[in-house]
Amino acid sequence: MGRTILLTGRPGVGKTTVIKRVVKQLGGHAGGFYTAEIREGGRRRGFKIVTLDGQEGILSHVDIKGRPRVSRYGVNLRDLEEVGVAALRRAIMEADLVVVDEIGKMELFSQGFRRAVAEVIEGDKPVLGTVMASPEPWVDALKALSQVTLLEVTQDNREQMVPLIVELLQSPS
């Protein structure tokens, strides 16, 4: 099994920035996705999925009606699966490092996402991802797996996280 490093921490603390810096420093071929805010008029209106090979989809938006919902955001399961899950499946086949940013409330509505994450973590490629901090049974079970290293990113330690994660990913399992 590959090594899995999952980052947790408060929203906005810099988890995605840490992941992007690790990917850049490692070089090689990383696959998967990260999430980014959609801002309109200076206000957050939703989140998009951005794959490491440049595809984008809408994960959630205030203008999406119906269910599922997280807070004021309607979740777009179609883009999550067609863009995000597809990126994970490609990464399993093609990448040296699989990035999953993030394993959170919105993403957990998709059974396809859950299956892809389980497949990635059980596979033999190294995985770098972010995970929600709040308790959730499925996520808590992931965090407890023997191949998972859980690291909390804070404002005080985020600058030291990049070299630490690079070292963990490059060391023998």
Description:
The chain is of the alpha/beta class and 173 residues long. The protein has a single domain, classed as P-loop containing nucleotide triphosphate hydrolases (Rossmann fold). Helix content is 36%, strand content 31%. It is built from five helices and nine strands; from the N terminus they run βαβββββαβαβαβα. Strands 5-6-4-3-2-7-8-1-9 form a nine-stranded mixed beta sheet, sandwiched between helices. Helix 3 links the parallel strand 7 and strand 8. Helix 1 crosses helix 5. The longest helix has 18 residues. The N and C termini lie close together (8 Å).
Keywords:
173 residues, Rossmann fold, 5 helices, 9 strands, 31% strand
How far from one another are the termini? 8 Å
Outline type: globular
Count of helix runs: 5
**What is the number of strand segments?**
9
**What series of H and E elements makes up the topology?**
EHEEEEEHEHEHEH
According to CATH, the fold-level topology is: Rossmann fold
Strand content: 25-35%
Number of domains: 1
